[in-house]
Amino acid sequence: MKVLVIEDNADLAGNIVDYFEGHGHVVDVAADGLGGLHLAITEQFDAVILDLILPGMDGMRLCEHLRSQGYDVPILMLTARGELEEKVSGLSVGADDYLVKPVALRELLARIQAQVRRARGGLPLRRWQVGDLCLDERTMTVHRAGCEITLTRMDYEILRILMRESPAVVTRARIESEAWGDNPPASDSLRAHIHRLRGAIDRPFRSSLLHTVHGIGYRLASDETPTP
Coil, strand, or helix at residue 58? Predict the structure, then answer.
């Protein structure tokens, strides 16, 4: 999961980053409304955590602007205000959820994950591309340089996760959680799948897209020189 945090309290933003990244997620931070708006419309995120009081553009205006442009990513508002009127206002301009500071980070993560699961259930299937590698969720097909690649169901799912998050690093724990759910694989199972996936999408071609980040996980990107 890739999350945008728009929060001008550096300590709170740092705590959110540390907690979410510690659970295998990717977090970008903006300290003001205009910077948050720029990131939201130029980058791809699974969810947004949005403070209500921000310099430059407040959270209400930012949320309302994003929704008016068709932005369909889940937005959770985070603020020190707890009055019912503020909650109703936040939800009325397009926020999906609302938490009052101080907030337990465990609850914040749980709420964000619930909103993302709900959103993904209703999102249209997409076509992903990294370099000359393409994955079409509508047809469940994979092509590279015009050549169709046949994958097992699990290899396809792992590739889809990596393509969706590209070029970010995806931790082993997160891949296993998303691909296997409540049935974790044997200790070397993911490594075997990655080995087979690399053989299918990289070895027949001139450059490598699938990269191992030792001790952390894997990333799919076209910006690195292949290693022998």
Answer: coil
